[in-house]
Amino acid sequence: MRRFIALLCFASVAIAQDEAEWPRWRGPTGDGFWQPKGLPADFAEREPVQQWKLPVGKGYGGVTIAAGRVYLMDRQTAPQEIERVLCLDLKDGKPVWQHTWPVTYGEMGGYATGPRASVTISEGKAYVLGATGMAWCFDAITGKVLWQRDTVKELQARVPQWGFAASPFLWQGNVLLHVGAENNGSVIALDQRTGKEVWRGGSDPAGYCTPEIIEHNGQKQLIQWGPENVQSLNPDNGQTLWTYPYKITYGVSIAQPLYRDGLLMVSGYWHGTKVLVPDATPKLVWEEEKKLCGLMSAPLFKDGKVYLLDKHEGLSCFELKTGKILWQDGNQLTPKDRNPHMSLVWLDQARDLVALLNASGELIYAKLKTDGAEVLARHQVIGKTWAHPAFTQDSLVARSDTEVTAWKLW
User: Taking the model in full, what pTM does it have?
Assistant: First the structure.
């Protein structure tokens, strides 16, 4: 009987994982793993087939998918300025529900495009944070509003220069929002059921980086990279565990920190890469201010090596422990630009295969070899974009400032 119950529970988990194909920023595990089952040997030779496309408004926020539905946010400016959250049917792109609210972007640092964060889906609920600070919880199936909070008016959040960009992060019944509120509210935890504040922690203003949880020497740490410090908080109560100063020009703490092999790495556009041992008193292992400068693109990791998009030299491979640069691709995978970008995921890590969507809207399959990146195929799937796509089973859903589109890849 116990064995039957255990098998039933396992089956339930498996079903839940199948339904939540890409339910949050950077995928099911939040670190760029796709790893689709049944990857054909000739996947690179198969031309993607467009399944549907739909006009949408502007936005940098990524696409998420759960239970056969696609979620994203955009901004409309006529007849009035609003933000929207959209729910679409994955099979045909038909709208299922939407919800709108009025906003005023102003200039927003010259990037007054649209929402920046991804919609986070969990247990039939959709969690949203708009660029001006409106936080929402919806029934993910029907679109019914379960709760809402104006984080600026109600919680004293302070809008950063380019708007709130960190996606909602879920932890132990709370939704964690990086909103840089007054009174040590760099991160605010709201009850997932009610939206009521549970705790706030961290002294930094709001940056643009989504919170993440690591476990170092048996201790859970909430890592929140802000404009002035790398912060470590207790994820259960917001208490500060440690901070490490890293004041950034223009406050652009964006790319996701990476924790592997007992080391924590952050990389910024202006002041480069730092690697720390995240102990109670963090120790700097090495730093590189000129040759390894990330911006928005989150890095990947395998076997001691980090793959990071540098602002000058393109995709760069280096040793996490030492900072030794093994190769840089010379901007072959995404165009060289003042603000270069691409979204990287592991297609098959065991075979060193990655899939990426570059800033030109090209889907690229590549193999990360010891001496560089070998491009296997390029497919144009959308226009210019900085938004992270959603990969699910054998398909891709991507968005630009004008449309969202789905492609069957093999």
Answer: 0.94
